[in-house]
Design brief:
The protein is an alpha/beta fold. The chain has 5 helices and 5 strands; from the N terminus they run E-H-E-H-E-H-H-E-E-H. Strand 1, helix 1 and strand 2 form a beta-alpha-beta unit.
Length: 155
């Protein structure tokens, strides 16, 4: 599975409460795993590569909603990079929770929904099972990806 189109700086977070059977990164479920980094440290890595856009994955970035919202806000205010974000939540669950929804204005493309092992399909682009949706939240990403994947628009 690729972390989005083109060159990307992928930020893999620790912490996930979905625990999808067959997850490709189960070591990321425990928030204690990984390396603690400040937003400033992560921004240095992101800014060091002027050509790569950004991917949030994990774990689940929405399990650290406050920190990832601030990181996404900084990315948008300090760079021209796009952000793709993978989550086990659906966009409907995110929108129903104002704490989670705070990140959405900064995300360009959301890949939502839990991975379902019984539906695993290695032919799908950017996701592991067909219940997961690729949702373009900004027109910029629609233009970049048009024809590459099916288009889902939820406004």
């Amino acid at each position: 599975m690729a972390d989005g189109p083109g060159l990307r700086t992928s930020i893999y977070c620790a912490g996930c409460n979905h625990h999808c059977p067959g997850c490709h990164n189960p070591q990321s479920w425990d928030i204690k795993n990984g390396k603690w980094m400040t937003i400033d440290e992560i921004m240095e890595v992101i800014k060091a590569d002027e050509f790569s856009n950004v991917t949030f994955s994990g774990g689940d970035p929405f399990c650290q909603a406050d920190a990832f919202t601030e990181l996404a806000r900084r990315i948008k205010s300090e760079t021209r990079k796009t952000i793709w974000c993978w989550t086990g939540y659906t966009i409907e669950q995110i929108r129903a929770d104002e704490h989670l929804a705070q990140m959405l204005p900064y995300i360009d493309t959301l890949v939502d929904g839990p991975f379902i092992l019984e539906q695993r399909d290695t032919q799908l682009l950017f996701r592991g099972s067909p219940n997961q949706r690729i949702i373009y939240l900004t027109p910029k990403e629609e233009d970049v990806c048009e024809g590459a994947v099916e288009l889902v628009k939820l406004r």
